[in-house]
Amino acid sequence: MDLTERLSNTEFAGLLQRLTARDWKQAPRKRFEVGGVAPDGRRKFGQVNEFVLRVLRAEPTGPRVRDIHAQIEFLLGEPVSRSSVKSSVHRLFRGRNPQVARIARGRYTLRE
Fold it and tell me: Is 14 in contact with 54 (CB distance < 8 Å)?
């Protein structure tokens, strides 16, 4: 009695042969446009900082953070998280070379 053909799994054997062949190829990485938002929602590094400085140059009277946020969303034409704008303003206000000065609670202007 011959049981070798009946107990063998040809599909599984084919998968094992493909795995042991070592002719694997890595899938190419998906690229996204440099100017826009990444597929996971992140922006290019420093983009929000650039727009905060642009808004502060346009309005020297010292806009509020929520006004800066609204202007950035208007300029980009898409939503931006409030926390990114707030942290960007805070990062420009603090640090080694502060570029922004606080003139009142929640109001900022460029340093001279």
Answer: no
Distance, CA of 96 to CA of 92 (rounded, Å): 9
CA 80 to CA 48: how far, in whole Å?
A: 9
Contact present, 80 and 73 (Cβ < 8 Å): yes
* In a domain? residue 6: no
List pLDDT tens digits, range 44-65: 777 888 999 999 999 888 899 9
- 71 in any annotated domain: yes
Give the type of residue at 4.
T
Q: Which long-range contacts (CB under 8 A, 24 or more apart) does 54-58 make?
A: 56/100, 56/108, 56/109, 56/110, 57/110
- As given in the structure block, the two tokens for residue 87 are 């942290």
How many structural domains does the chain have?
1
Q: Domain holding 54: CATH number?
A: 1.10.10
Residue 11 backbone dihedrals phi, psi, to 5 degrees: -65, -45
